[in-house]
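Researcher: Good morning. I'm working through a list of sequences from a screen, and I'd like to move beyond sequence-only analysis. For each chain I'm collecting a predicted structure so we can compare shapes side by side. This is the next one on the list. No need for commentary yet; just the structure.
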Amino acid sequence: MIQITETAAHKIRTLMAKQGISEGGLRVGVKGGGCSGLSYTFTWDKQARTGDEVFDGPEGAKIYVDKKSLLFLNGTVLDYDTNMLTQGFVFNNPNAKSTCGCGSSFGA
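Model: Good morning. Structure tokens for this chain:
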């Protein structure tokens, strides 16, 4: 399971509206790379793909996660940092054994 905070949900809905996307959600995944070994990925999708897990958040926000990425993301809380210097999505990932300084990659 992945939890979406109210702040992250609001940002997802705001970004979707800015891009003219009325349906769908944020695809969140994990790929090899980054300074810690694995990095987070984001894309917009109009619907879930076969085999995806779909997680609903406040304001109707949705995130789609493929089963392979879910192995690394299960139990994560997706938040959004509103600080002007570090603004962006934040993964509070209990599976991350190490993280890089910028928070965009992790080791499991």
